[in-house]
Amino acid sequence: QLSGKWFLVSMASRCSYLLEHSHQLEATTVTITILDGQSLAISTFRKLDKMCWEIRQHYLPAQAPGRFLLKGEGDCSKVDVVVGEADPSNFIILYYQKGRSISVKLYGRTSLVSDAIMDKFEQHIRAVGLSEDVTYYFPTYGFCDSADEFHILDGEL
Predict the structure, then answer these.
(1) What secondary structure does DSSP assign to 76-135, as a single string?
(2) Where residue 97 sits, what CATH number does that domain have?
(3) Which GO biological-process labels does this protein carry (predicted)?
């Protein structure tokens, strides 16, 4: 149900990089492919220095439905990914937790979502102790649909 194309609408996070570079946010899309009925192949498309890049990641199924594990290098870089709420035809809210830090992302099937969906997202961010001052909104134009072979970052390690 989660497969297909999604637009990154908003993100709440205390990440210092976001705080310092929020003026440089780029329109971002994600394509989700369900592998073997459980794990997810994620392709993120966004611009970096005016070039379209694709970042490929693999979310492995965790202990419970709607929970995934994104592994990086070493044990310290694993990220727990949890589906907070989803209406597969309209939106998905994902929690990303690494250690004690948590981020919440809102994806829509279109780059603009309804006020009702934004209200749901704001309820989720407040529930984890985040607020409007650490919420970022992504551009609704200038999306990348693909990247050439020299601009693909493969998250498979």
Answers:
(1) GG-EEEEEEEEETTTEEEEEEEETTEEEEEEEESSSS--HHHHHHHHHHHHHTT--GGGE
(2) 2.40.128.20
(3) complement activation
AA letter at 87: D
Prediction pTM value: 0.90
- Determine, yes or no, domain membership for 40: yes
pLDDT per residue of the chain (157 residues) written in tens, 0 to 9: 789 999 999 999 998 888 898 888 999 999 999 988 789 999 999 998 888 999 999 999 998 889 999 876 665 678 999 999 999 999 999 999 988 899 999 999 999 999 999 999 999 999 999 999 999 999 988 888 888 777 888 765 3
